[in-house]
Specification:
two-stranded antiparallel sheet, His-Me finger endonuclease fold, mainly alpha, 2 strands, 4 helices, 115 residues
Length: 115
């Protein structure tokens, strides 16, 4: 009779097809940073300066819901038009200020709907 062998577990190395677990957001972010080079632009001093100028221009007010947010970590400098990794479009804008909930929920829903 043949001897049965076990298959090594390989689930840890598979990339999820349906999305990531919310608690695993750090891993998802690291994966996206590694595979999408343009994400590094968000970590530059140039982007931080541009972001600050947009937030102050819009008086720290979300353009979707009108909420005034004093905690700048809860505000996003959003590209109104998707840049798709194009460096010229990334830096040129146009930009708007959104609160994090509007950006992460409403704006993403709009972008998914319109491709």
């Amino acid at each position: 009779m043949a001897k049965l062998t076990t298959i090594k577990p390989r689930l840890a190395g598979l990339v999820p097809r349906l999305g990531y677990v919310v608690a695993d957001e750090r891993s998802r972010s690291r994966y996206r940073d590694a595979t999408q080079g343009w994400r590094a632009w968000y970590k530059t001093a140039r982007w931080q300066k541009l972001r600050w100028s947009i937030l102050t221009r819009d008086l720290f007010t979300c353009k979707m819901c009108g909420k005034i947010e004093g905690q700048t970590s809860q505000l996003v400098c959003d590209h109104i038009e998707r840049h798709g990794g194009d460096e010229a479009r990334f830096w040129a804008g146009p930009f708007q200020t959104l609160c994090k909930p509007c950006h992460d929920r409403d704006k993403q829903k709009i972008e998914r709907r319109h491709g």
